[in-house]
Design goal:
mainly alpha, 12 helices, 2 strands, globular
Length: about 300
Amino acid sequence: MRLKKPAITVLDWVLLAVILGFLTYVVYRLFFALNYKWNWAVIPTYLLRFDGETQGWKANILLEGFFTTIKLSVWATLLAALLGFAIGLCRVSPRLFLRMTGRTYVESIRNTPPLVLVFIFYYFVSDQLLALAGLEELARAATGTGRTLLAFFFAEPNLINQFFSGVLTLALFQGAYIAEIVRAGIQAIDTGQWEAGKSIGLTRWQLLRRIILPQATRIMLPPLAGEFINTIKWSSIVSIISIQELTFQGLQVMASTHAAIEVWLTISVMYLVPCLGLSLCVRRLERAFAGEDRAGQTVPQFPSY
């Protein structure tokens, strides 16, 4: 009779003890041995503030930065998804020009330092595209409900150019990675699906729309959700171009309070909460798809005509 292998071995316990010992040492050095004057009392005051005019509590700069980070990430992911989907289709196109165009974009983005890209995109987008569109003037002309909605979904009129510069910069950057997810998802579909579709007279667009993309989308969804998490984390890089997201606001608080460790620990938690929540959602999504695959519910079916 074969003995069942224990879920946790002695080696696991030893490794756990080593990890806990190391963490205990780090905490001890941080809180007791470090010559540092802790000042946690300043953190809540930069999260919430009492507004005398409305007689209510409002978000202060750290929370405002957090909300700006979320808005930046959502809009940048949506734009990156549209751009990445178009470039991904170019990458699998039978036309050489489209394939070369898609590959040039992807390789240019992936093989250039992100910091350099942020500066290039920001100065081009801010100085050329947004100035040409007159976006800030349109935002400043908005009144009443229009101004409120603009501030809720995007940014205050005086910050609208910086906000859209950040969104477009992140979208151009993330679009290259999403394009590769789309390409890989489409190429993961068995070639027999393409041949079967052609045999019944479908055009390439009909094949993509009716057969390939519905199956490829299931493959692409988990990594696409992962890219949204990456966008939240990458949004911190636009702080160098003075976009008032969470990292930028954290730097401002740190400069005025000198509470460096408290501020960075708080910011870490504020990034961790949405990223960890989304990671758990992605894991559930992957398990749900894996369960359906095991149940045999994803066998490709040709549409009826």
